[in-house]
Amino acid sequence: MTRLEQRWGQRGATLTPPRCVWAAFSCKAGEFLDMKAQACKPCAEGTYSLGTGIRFDEWDEVPHGFANVATNLEVDDGFGDAVENCTASTWVPLGDYVASNTDECTATLMYAVNLKQSGTVSFEYIYPDSSIVFEFFVQNDQCQPMVEESRWMRTTEKGWEFHSVELSHGNNVLYWRTTAFSVWSKVPKPVLVRNIGITGVAYTSECFPCKPGTYAPTAGSSACQLCPADTFSSKGATACQPCEPAAYAEPGSASCKARPPCTDKDYFYTHTACNARGETQLMFKWAEPKICSEELPQAAKLPPSGVKTRCPPCNPGFAKSNGSACQPCPYGSYSNGCISCPAGTEPVLGLEYKWWNVLPPNMETTVLSGINFEYKGMAGWEVAGDYIYTAAGASDNDFMILTLVVPGFSPPSPVLEDAESKEVARITFVFETVCSVSCELYFMVGINSRTNTPVETWTGPKGKQSYTYVVEKNATMSFTWAFQRTPYHEAPLATPDCHLLPPQLRSLCYNNCSFSLALPGQILHYDFSALAASMAFASGPSFTAKGLKYFHHFNISLCGHQGRKMASCTDNVTDVRLPAGEGDPARVVRSHVCQAILVPPDVMGYKTAVSSQPVSLADRIVGVTAGSALDGITSPPEHFPPGHPDLPDIVFFYR
User: Cβ atoms within 10 A of the Cβ of 133, count?
Assistant: First the structure.
């Protein structure tokens, strides 16, 4: 208890106030302030407290005290489509987390708190798609922003990430703000936020009951524990109750569900490692966690395991030594059986996986939940002799992930910096997708353990086909395949607004996956080798369905600098202070011609423009000619204005 004294005059008179004053009083985590006893006491079983903090971990509805608003920051100036109403484009509570909007409205989640002492705000988030601008920032009671460097959130790669910001004594207003700019690409995946915690409040006078699916077994708990699988709990539970044998529950469940009958989709097959006799066994296993029942009528049974077959041969470049496992061939030998290279030659290094009896040591597989984006610790792909396939998952929303890591490459000849082709290696794979409902296969590439960038996506059932990706950087590369049966809803692709380009540049737009560029006739007066490295221009303005203004920004490198790819387009959504063409190579696209979506500063109120969704439009120059066709590419004449009779158009052909 605090005792206040004030001395009056020279005689030292003492004034004792009629009541006590609590200033910056605090209780420990797991305790609450008992107002009658004026002392901190432990929380009862089934409840918890943060002591000097509050936590928001239930999102069945937006918690009391939060403001959830959506606005359109672009005004209707009469040039674009009518500005649409944004009142419905707010953050959406979805049980354990809250999800952002995915359209061009600006959705803001706000919370105001008065701190009696310095504290922190922390939360977990998933930010998978840079087509959305995601900010978190804090303002004080004078509406001045604080911790500006923490404003721009970084995209996430591996599930939930933790973010924490220090708060000052006094009033703090917290803002979570999103705006999507999905102009002609797919509908972006939303930002997810959960477990918002704030510390620095004076005290809490009550403890909070554990939410359904959690429990606190002892008094003085600072957090509730998750109920394990096949158990459940109600609000304020001190223990979890087991499900009946005919029911199941996922971890953190508030109730149990009836087990469905097992089907052939609930088990998978795999092969054991080869034994000393060169035999492998076919094994059938239930997908874990097993939620189906074999006892119900028409339920499928697990087929018998143990059928022995001969092991497939080793992959090229491998051979069996003393043991049954395949080992890499020693240096100087190659192919099946490790044949020595002839004198004066050396082996061409590479990896070729034709046989899948065991997962190679430089590959790994896992399952990422498509619901809470947490890893499940189970295999998503299984080997099957001459192929590898996605195993049965517990949920159709799960991502079945397979990753191959290559520590570097040894090209047959050095790659020159000014060479037209920068190829140092290539990866080719054969695949097919079989699905009765919507499904997607993603192929992603990462450089030096940095962000995995999707380079190709296949939607729906696809027949057996081959795909090749050219590697242009000698670095540690990761190649990832992710398969999902029921992805997010996606809008159809739309092409850029080609008609908004200057007439002599319209043929830069999509033309059967190839592009041509028409420039004014006076280009003939220039020496090509001395031509400027690149030029940039923007079409527009264009307007989204919600009325937000944006531009298609093009950057072009012609045939100067010995054909080097000098044009660059940047994704700076997560760091708008990044100058164009600089920063993390995983977020910069370099090619002869590239395109990005550019949102001007006046739209969002930022200090600089936001550039997102960069794509390469021209990876390789085919040739430059005055003709309208070259190597199977035709330049449509309607895209060009009438030419000068003595100065023909020069057409640049790219792939």
Answer: 22
**Cβ neighbours around 190 below 10 Å, total:** 25
Question: Tokens in use for 650?
Answer: 């020069």
pLDDT in tens, 324-374: 678 888 888 887 678 888 888 888 888 888 888 888 888 998 888 766 667
The residue count for the chain: 655
List, in order, residues 6 or more apart from 343 with CB less than 8 Å away: none
Question: Which two three-digit tokens encode residue 287?
Answer: 């997908």
Looking only at Cα atoms, what is the longest distance across the chain?
A: 110
Alpha helices, DSSP H only, in 502-620? Answer: 601-604
Instruction: Determine the Cα–Cα distance for residues 548 and 602; give it in Å rounded to an integer.
Output: 11
Measured in whole angstroms, the distance separating CA 470 from the mean position of its chain's CA atoms is: 23
What token pair was written down for 191? 């930002």
Contact call for residues 109 and 98 (beta carbons, < 8 A): yes
Cβ atoms of residues 621 and 559 within 8 Å? yes
CA distance 101 to 90: 6
Residues 297 and 13: their CA atoms lie apart, in Å, by 91
Q: Coil, helix or strand for 588?
A: strand
Cα four-point dihedral sign 399, 404, 408, 413? negative
497, 628 contact by CB (below 8 A): no
Q: How far apart are the first and last CA of the chain?
A: 78
pLDDT tens for each residue of 545-592: 555 677 777 777 764 444 455 678 877 765 544 444 444 444 677 777
**pLDDT-wise least confident of 22-31, 186-195, 249-258, 538-547:** 538-547
Residue 73 structure tokens: 């920051």
Classify 603 as helix, strand or coil. helix
In the block, tokens 């000698």 appear at 474
Residue by residue, DSSP assigns 442-502 as: EEEEEETT---EEEEEEES-EEEEEEEEEE-S-S-EEEEEEEESS----PPP----GGGS-
* Unique residue bearing structure tokens 């590959």: 363
Q: How many CA atoms does the CB half-sphere of 442 hold within 13 Å?
A: 17
* Rounded-to-integer distance, Cα 292 and Cα 281, Å: 25
- Amino acid 578: pLDDT: 44
Q: Which of 409, 406, 411 is nearest to 479 (CA)?
A: 406
In the chain, DSSP finds a helix count (H) and a strand count (E) of 1, 50
> In terms of Cα–Cα distance, which of 351, 405, 361, 356 is closest to 381?
356
List, in sequence order, every residue forming a beta bridge with 647; answer none if it has no partner: 644
